[in-house]
Amino acid sequence: MSDDTLSDEPVRSSGGLAPDAPTPTGTRSLETTVAAVIALASGVIGFAWGFTWFLVGIGRDGSTVTIGGATVMVLSGWACVAGFLLWVRHWWAADAVRITCAVSIVAVIVFGLLSANASGSGPFPYIVSLVLIAILLTPIVLLGRPGARDDFPRMGQSRLATTISLWSIVAVWTVPTLGLFLASLREERAVKTEGWWTIFTNPQLTLDNYTTVLGTGGGDSPDLGQYFLNSLSIVLPATVIPISIALFAAYAFAWMKFPGRRWLFILVVSLMAVPLQLSLIPLLQLYTGGAHIGSVTIFPDLDLNGGPVSVWLTHTGFGLPLAIFLLYNYVSGLPADLFEAARIDGADHYTIFWRLVVPLSVPAIAAFGIFQFLWTWNDYLIALTFIGSNADAQPLTIRLANLSGGRGQDWHVLTAAAFVSMSVPLLVFFSLQRYFVRGLLAGSVKG
Amino acid sequence: MDELIRMVVGVVGSIGISAAIFISLNKVADLLPIGARNAVRPWIFVGPALIFIFAALVVPTMRTLYLSFFDNSGDNYVGGENYGWIFTNDSIFGFDGIGGVFTSRLFILGIVIAGAAGALTFRSGRRNGSRVDLSGSTPLVLLGAAATFLLFAVFTNLSGVIWNNLWWVVAVTGIATSLGLAVAVLADQVKGESIAKSLIFLPMAISFVGASIIWRFVYSFSPAGRDQIGILNGVWVGLGGQPLAVLQDQPWNTFFLIVVLIWAQTGFAMVVLSSAIKAVPDEFIEAARVDGATKQQIFWKIILPQISSTIVVVVTTLIILVMKVFDIVKVMTNGEFGTNVIANEMFDQSFRFQSFGRGSALAVVLFISVLPIMIMNVRRVRNEQDL
């Protein structure tokens, strides 16, 4: 179990780029020359094409055409620069060209496929895409050949590509959440009629949406404060109960001898992967009608359905296998000498458990606790099945889903409501990330 | 205040009750003669957990199996009728579009790329003296792309709940694992690693319901001529396209739902794989570098084989998770527009139409599809724990 996987570790493969890398002497290889010519030629042709397009756009007052033309001009301009840098064998030119070509190929595939699918105009878009891909592949292949490698001895050592790809993925991953957050801070009219990105040209922020969703108004008021408490009253017991039960079991599996120990533990491990859908119908029947064999009642009809108790019990049952597995891994790793010494001093299992195991297991308990906390806070299926439409016990997730279904275009309400429901998990995530990661690494087999 | 009282009663009560039962049982055990005491004590420790596990998982699983052979009231035995309904129902497991698979452009593209990859591996294999050479990024990336195109050709042409589910499993597992691996490798080499990883990992903390709202906003659609409020259509229209009704246009709407889960789960794959990569001994990498291996060779020939068992863990965990995907479909489309999946169909059959027989049969289908993975998990844990 790695302790701290999200921290900055020393950068392992240091590229070691000297800015004053020497320009290679000797003649330029054929590969480099051809690649440079291709870049220059496509740059010039593209620039002319884009410029024409641009002029047509201005003449027609079509802004998309103008923007398209301008984009082509910028890209072609870059191709010219890259071709020139290749020609003079600037030390990072090869890397820059290969990255540009690779990115462009991805763009061609994505946009080529999308537009071909959208237009349905026969094979033409595919042929254009394939030709473009072939043109873009040529410099990549050429610059990978031995001749070009001699021209650019430091090729492949630039961290530029790595940095660009990493941060573009990060950007794509962050923009959806960020957009929702920014939208939630705008007034109703702006949220509903403009893209959230116009916030940068029209920065008017308000907390009105948050007061709306938290306020206790009339009939269809979101009233999230109430549901927030409902969520808490489900989550805390559903986290604490499995931990207390599982720790006993984990200790027994690790340090006590009893018949069937091995098989019972294997059963627990295998149950981690059971889809919980398998239990929904029988548990619902159990909570509404009890369980009977013949006329003998095993579990009385307590009419638990619609209340939080049924959800506590269900989360406990579903959380236990993972809890036992995680805590077992930890408890069984405690040093045997410790238990030996305690036993020599006359301590029995009961004392050892309370005096040694409980205090020593706090890190593992924290790891599983956060896991179970987030899991139950974010749960929708179990609450929907067992609480259903009882508004007095529904957690935030059900409320949010209902708002999304019933008031799907009220984005000023939905954005703020989503953030209210995400606030607690995000807080837990940022403050206790290290424990969360630990739990994740230790038990990545939960069903 | 009702909820607060309920919460406190829940926490204190449950701890109190379990502690009281546990302590009194131990006191009772202390009264027994020493031999019996030692035999009984372990069962006091594991008993409560086993009771819960049997009541919530083992017995219900068997009961669901049993119910799946009965009609919707649960009283009359109907044999395999519920399973017959699943596999002969066109909206669940249809073969109508099978002809379209082989004529689709995706399929043709996939074949072309696979051919190119094959040619490349044979060529480099001849050069290295072996028959085929699968190492290196180009053939593997090409083969991956070809497989993706071929599978997508199947899933975009065949409609039905089970096909959708398979599409989810293939796409989420494949894309989230490879992206997670890519991010783990990339982040290992640059500054700002922890910030980048935290941001990719962040969606793990967000509920699927919350994620669905986030992405419904990304996908939101206004008719042409009006300002778009969703970023996807904002960019698309900005580039000159017609606004897309992303969540309604079949068959690609399913893929746009799949993207949500990929977004949520890539962080998981990244964290687990990243810790595995960091556990690869530095000496291996140093030795390879001294021998003149390039960065690519180090990745494909040293790091990848070292972390292969972790990749298996990530893939199996994701398959189990994706198989029973429910929240995203329920919230974003409610299974409309041909986006339904097994878990949502199971929920509708069981709790909307009260067809417990059909619902149980669908749950059993889910169970059988993760059964091989359960067995693999048990084997792995048994080897690791030396049981």
The low-confidence parts of chain A are 1-5, 7-20
Average pLDDT, all residues of chain B? 86
What is the fourth-level CATH superfamily of the largest domain in chain A?
MetI-like
Q: What is the C-level CATH assignment of the largest domain in chain A?
A: Mainly Alpha
Strand order of the largest sheet of chain A: 1-2
Number of discrete helical segments of chain B: 18
The termini of chain B sit apart by 49 Å
From the 3D coordinates, which CATH architecture of the largest domain in chain B would you assign? Orthogonal Bundle
**Number of separate strands of chain B:** 0
Q: What kind of sheet is the major sheet of chain A?
A: 2 strands, antiparallel
Query: Which structural class is indicated by helix and strand composition of chain A?
Result: mainly alpha
Strand content of chain B: under 5%
Give the N-to-C terminal Cα separation of chain A: 21 Å
Helix content of chain A: over 70%
Count interface residues per chain for the largest interface. A-B, 140 and 134 residues
- Radius of gyration from the alpha-carbon trace of chain B, in angstroms: 26 Å
What is the domain total for the residues of chain B?
Answer: 4
Q: What Rg of chain A is obtained from the alpha carbons, in whole angstroms? A: 31 Å
Q: Rough shape of chain A? A: extended
Structural class of chain B: mainly alpha
What's the mean pLDDT score of chain A?
80
What can you see in these coordinates?
The complex is a heterodimer of chains A (447) and B (387). With 447 residues, chain A is mainly α. Chain A folds into two domains: 30-158, no CATH class; 224-442, Orthogonal Bundle (MetI-like fold), CATH 1.10.3720. Chain A has helices spanning 30-60, 63-87, 93-119, 124-143, 146-151, 160-184, 188-193, 208-214, 224-255, 261-271, 277-289, 308-331, 336-344, 349-360, 362-378, 381-386, 396-406, 411-442; strands spanning 291-293, 296-299. Chain A has a two-stranded antiparallel ribbon with strand order 1-2. In chain A, β1 and β2 (296-299) form a beta hairpin. Chain B folds into four domains: 23-67, no CATH class; 68-94 and 358-387, no CATH class; 95-158; 163-339, MetI-like (MetI-like fold, Orthogonal Bundle), CATH 1.10.3720. The interface between A and B is large, with 140 and 134 residues.
